[in-house]
Amino acid sequence: MSFLPYGRHSIDDDDIAAVAAVLRGDFLTTGPKVDEFEAAFARATGAEHAVVCNSGTAALHLAVLAQDLGPGDAAVVPTETFLATANVVRMTGAEVVFADVDADSGLLTSEGLQQAIDRARAAKLKPKFALPVHLGGQLCDMAALAAVAKANGMVLIEDACHSLGVPDVGATPHSVAACFSTHPVKAIATAEGGAVTTNDAAAAARMRRLRSHGMVRDAADFQNRDLAFQSNEPNPWYYEMQEIGWNYRIPDVLCALGISQLKKLEGFWRRRMAIAALYDRLLAPLAPVIRPVPHGARPHGWHLYAVLIDFKTLGATRKSVMEWLRARNVGTQVHYIPVHRQPYYRERYGVLDLPGADAYYSRCLSLPMFPLMSDADVAHVADVLAELAAGGVGQKQGSTGR
Ligand SMILES: *Cc1c(COP(=O)(O)O)cnc(C)c1O
């Protein structure tokens, strides 16, 4: 039995061939594969527009910039997420208002959102939007969050990095944009990469400009007419920058990989669902000490398969459990340390009381979950967890050893 990481990519020969074909061609970076990847990504998510870029973080940053976020502004971010969700808000100079999450699901709820908005108001901040995170792949109740947002004059931007592949995620009926990552542990891999989907054509055009230095190349948009035109004809070398932008371009080489991977997205997602169903069945006897993060009726991307562990009843620390599992080829990870506890944010915003996030964080552990896992792999993980629940770690740490 080889080591099972908590997540990994699935790359086939046809993915490799798609990359090799681009490497033999004329365009390594921006070329025809960018448009093709964007069209395929929009089709796959049901959005009108997809803007692809070189990371999920860049996708979030572009989406936030397209809402004109800047110094003096604020945005609500659930604290139970990856650093990037909060960091992109700070990258614009705006303030992060951390929201608490449900203690069992780790998801932002309408109550958590309202509390965060109230806390922001008390601090004389008026959040422009909230960034719900579909943690682990389970969708937030977007309709409920959208109702709270609307009542407070806000919009939603989805951090959908965990839920690519769930039908209609990215179609954004309740949000202005959804952001995705194509890092290898996510639903599809382009090494590094990301995308924003939106139904707002103007926002898509702006994000494409911001993706490449804020550079404008369409003559109809030029402002510096004296530099741009000669005899009413645009100068062939001319380009123009009207606002600050970045280099968030994703290379054609990686777009080719993304196009090839997208073709398999539904299959990947179906395999993840099958693995989750098998885990659910095999782990059921271990409740309540070890139990899956409860998942309700809403669709699930199964980026992660996380369990909640009652470490106190188990009589073991999470560190010892992770080490014990690792020694049995079971890789695990903790998603996530509440972001408001990071020294950078603690220094900026002080010590916050977000008990739902603390309760989730103190119990969660992500088990191996990726499409190439076999049923036997899942059974191995379940067996090892059963041994753990029966006192495995304690026995190992006991004076008799094993
Ligand atoms: C992976 C991830 C990101 C960042 O994506 P990168 O491609 O690594 O930049 C942001 N938010 C969440 C929830 C993620 O899981």
Structural notes for this entry:
The chain is of the alpha/beta class. It has 2 domains: 250 residues, Aspartate Aminotransferase, domain 2, CATH 3.40.640; 134 residues, Alpha-Beta Complex (Aspartate Aminotransferase, domain 1). The protein contains 16 helices and 14 strands. Strands 1-7-6-5-4-2-3 form a 7-stranded mixed β-sheet, sandwiched between helices. Strands 12-13-14 form a 3-stranded antiparallel β-sheet. Strand 2, helix 4 and strand 3 form a beta-alpha-beta unit. Helix 3 crosses helix 4, helix 3 crosses helix 7 and helix 10 packs parallel to helix 15. The longest helix is centred in the C-terminal third of the chain and has 19 residues. The protein is globular and about 85 Å long. Bound molecules: pyridoxal-5'-phosphate. Pyridoxal-5'-phosphate binds next to helix 3 and helix 4.
TL;DR of this structure?
The protein has helices at 13-23, 32-45, 56-65, 83-91, 110-122, 142-151, 201-211, 225-228, 252-262, 265-283, 311-314, 318-326, 343-349, 355-363, 375-389, 392-397, and strands spanning 49-53, 74-78, 95-99, 127-130, 155-159, 177-181, 194-198, 215-216, 229-230, 233-234, 240-241, 290-292, 305-309, 364-367. The protein is of the alpha/beta class and 402 residues long. It has two domains: 13-262, Aspartate Aminotransferase, domain 2; 265-398, Aspartate Aminotransferase, domain 1.
